[in-house]
Description:
This protein is 51% helix and 20% strand. It has 10 helices and 14 strands. α4 packs antiparallel against α8 and α6 (148-165) runs antiparallel to α8. The chain is elongated, with a radius of gyration of 53 Å. The mean pLDDT is 77.
Amino acid sequence: MSTIVSPQQSRQQELITPEVQELINYKPHWLVRKGSLVLLVILLVLLGLTFIVSYPDIIPSRARLAALNPPKLVKVRQEGKLIRLLVQNEQDVVQGQYLGCLESTALFDDVMKLKKWVEESIAISQSSTPDIVVNQTLPFLASLGELQLPYQQLQDKMEIAKQTYGKGYYQLKRNVLAMEIEYNRKLKQNNQQQKAIEEQNRSMLQQEYEAYEKLAKDKVIAPLELNQYKAKLLSGMQNIEQLDAAATSTDISGLGKTKEMMDIDKQRLDILQQLRSGLFELKSQIAQWCRDYVLEAPESGKVLFISSLNENQLVVTTQPLMYIQPPESRYYVEMMAAQRGLGKINEGQTVVLRVDGYPSEEFGYLSAKISYISNMPGPRDSFLIRAELVNGLKTNYGRSVFFRNDLAADAQIITDQRKLISRFAGQLNNLIRR
């Protein structure tokens, strides 16, 4: 069945070109047809997110990591060759343990033997009799280097002490003096016995004289006979005085012998004290040698090598060799904040730390909480802020930061979590007030 076209429609079809016909028949993309609606929805979603999403207020600062018990750095006091390495990396050590030894004119093993002997001898000298001290046998050591001279001096002092406390001149003389003092004591005791007898004799003569004196007064006997009894009495009294003089002489002699023995004992004590002083002096010089040539653990903990260490390696004083990581350390952060924005900082706020040398893209960041804010400004009109690390030296990526003294970091103090709508309103308010 054919369609009848009116003359008017025929004329319209003649006026519409194929290009126009194609444009009329084209159907637009849905994004074009509904773009306004999509844009409106997006704007509404973004507006809704401003009520949900929070953005923190941040105060930037520079921070320094510190510790109450930080790892202790170990390095040499003088340049030299590391001839002995006595520990391995990550080995547990105790305080005072030797870690290594530098090259010296003295052999490390000989010095250690001498050190042990000196410490044992000092302990014996403080708790034992002098005879035990001087009977100690000094080990024969010929490779002590700069310690050889004080070692020889101590050996000489020990020989003198052995002669003094052994069966030598001082001991023989002391024995003789002890015998003389004992003889004087017995002589004095005998003198006292004789004096007691003479006192009794004098007492009887005194009584006899008094009896004859009465007879002489009564003229029973002649005065000449009385004088004879008086002479006997005076003779007895003279004997007592002579015994007193002999006793005094014995005491003086005994005091002299006692003084000589005291002098000998003092000389012996002086020699023993010189020996003890020599022990302490040698101990001090050994300690100085160890400070110069031996690496010693300053604290108990774990050894952490800073770089590869090998025996016969040349080391210098400026070269850090290893750290001793204590079993327990407490780390914290110190920051300086200017007066601008200080009123927004409060205790308990979070601090984000990006440590220098540990890129945050790879290692992450550390978290801390503010625990102290100074009330008094420092020399640069800034205030000290202290923060405690929440997870120690472990970052948000689970990686650990190795602590070093004065380890620096960029700090961001998060003072407030504000909604985006609040920030936009604040900015708009500022524009209106302008």
